[in-house]
Amino acid sequence: MTCFWDALRSSLNIKDYEFANIKKPNSHKEFIQALQNNIQSMDNILWQNEIIKPQEIKEHISAIKEYNIRAINSGHLTSTCDSFLLLICSLFNLNIIQNYRGNIIKYTCHNPRRVIKFKNNSGHFQIN
Predict the structure, then answer these.
(1) Number of domains within the chain
(2) Among residues 1, 52, 64, 101, which one has the fewest Cβ atoms lying within 10 Å of its Cβ?
């Protein structure tokens, strides 16, 4: 079950990868490795209009670094403040709006290039 990674990859275009200076990956594994190899501080991101504390940023960075790529087919447990969504927002300079069962979760950066929207429940994650 790779719906999380399917949605993330299909939401990004060639201009996004060029902006981040990342070669467009050919697989989920390459995509995750590219994210792990290009981790940023994420201190430029607001989550639900709140500044993310430095300790929280360290924990998100650690979660990304330690992510087990071999387990991607078992699904991604998307958290309320998801480390990979924070990184996508920061790395590609995008705003993300996530609709989780009618609850809107916002990841925002300064001067975003565009907005991407996702929709999910406890079992599926997709582009909205």
Answers:
(1) 1
(2) 101
